[in-house]
């Protein structure tokens, strides 16, 4: 296709359509579709914008992608579109790295403070019109492990450090002198050092290596007073083993924004377990996030049309955007 | 009394007695009493340690204080012992300045994040087994006014700034270039600038000047989206006017740790109002606080016995410990 030709862009939408697409529409034939119409809409398309970022429809529609060169997803985690046919193809995959970092960091600091200050109990007591004084915990000086050293993990580390906590990282490569984490431990040896931490925050990308990394062995290694926070992906956790660890008192609590099955099924014991905070996959979704996601796509679309290198190109083997060529994001 | 004489120390206790008093007991005749026994225990006493810091028993027992030279209160706010006869006497009043600062700052950051991230609604939805995604707010860049520029207000300002918020102060004397606040506005002109802020935090000492400073006029001046946080004293607020402002939508919410009447009466509308977080006067009470309070007293007791100047001497006219001779704590 010559730059002068008008490309075909398919946009996979869910309940909501992306706002502010006028700039893109002036320079592409845009086909909006839902999951059902995706195969037809993919045929002859040059680019695919996965705006419905939790949709699992792309792998099934892939045989229709006869001309696709670029796939952009309105998310940081690319796991819904990371399947072998895409990985082996020449299609360039980009994500929305950076949009959610600081909002998620604020969310994590919020749940850490909610645990330390016993906010859930305060609210339950308030709902019961009951005045009951308790002592609470400090967060200053407490040890936090952030598992996942990409941009979201880094934003979490910076904010928690600013609030006085002691933060380390866990990633693919052990190292010292990291600007945000100081020390980064080897995520392959997680159970060996999990016992040192008061808070363990999961924010690793979901890959074959990270799937189920928080299971019985990991929880058994944590302090009985530890709180586990998941703002990454539900599949990082073996849910049944988390439930068992909470029941056995192997850890003290969990704040979970993501789940193996979303929405969390009504019969999940997590809804009602003491010490568990459930939120509906919203930690990064600050007011204005959808507009920002479209801005990120639009900026990349302009680069694509101008023949410039795209931003946020995912390493399809790793499953995320490497921070540096040597893979320091791991 | 000569230094070689053993002084009589009266300790006013509530339900709990102070821990770790052995060092003091080895150098004083210590009389532990509750409110009922206070007059008898005060007669002939050289010093009074008000460990039950919310007790209102001291003014009524004051005629029995025939020999008292020093009164120490296990609190930052001295309002329960600030009555005319004490103010006019030569009795030195000291407080527990510094013990609660950082814990209260963490609590305030926690409720700010609880508002921004809609935690109360998340917990209510969790209790109802309901998955409902919402957008949430960022805290970075939001404007905070801290009313009260003593050590607790300063700790709040430092922590909220570290978390990315824009913080100003309000105190007795307008000024710029404050190390913690940057700009400090004149608390006498509060309604003129309250409308600039997303969060208003009350942490002023309770004095004749500050009593009821948050009333109808102040709330009407705030943004409809503003949240009010009180970690100072309940009497800083005209409760009925706060309730009316919340009902009228003049402000969006309130996190209240202190109340005009404590415990908060069961029939108070505050328990059940949307947007209101009630906690039972616990914001500073980190695990170990009682031990720390006794340590602060013990250190001052040693100074007193050695004839050294006491720490945390309250200006009984102002009602708090001035930060600097010129009264910059105001």
Automatic annotation (TrEMBL), chains A, B:
Molecular functions (GO terms): NAD binding; oxidoreductase activity, acting on the CH-OH group of donors, NAD or NADP as acceptor
Protein's UniProt keywords contain Transmembrane helix: no
All residue ranges annotated as the D-isomer specific 2-hydroxyacid dehydrogenase NAD-binding domain in the record: 110-283
UniProt keyword terms in alphabetical order: NAD, Oxidoreductase
PANTHER family, A to Z: 2-HACID_DH_C DOMAIN-CONTAINING PROTEIN (PTHR43333), D-ISOMER SPECIFIC 2-HYDROXYACID DEHYDROGENASE NAD-BINDING DOMAIN-CONTAINING PROTEIN (PTHR43333:SF1)
Annotated protein name in UniProt: D-2-hydroxyacid dehydrogenase
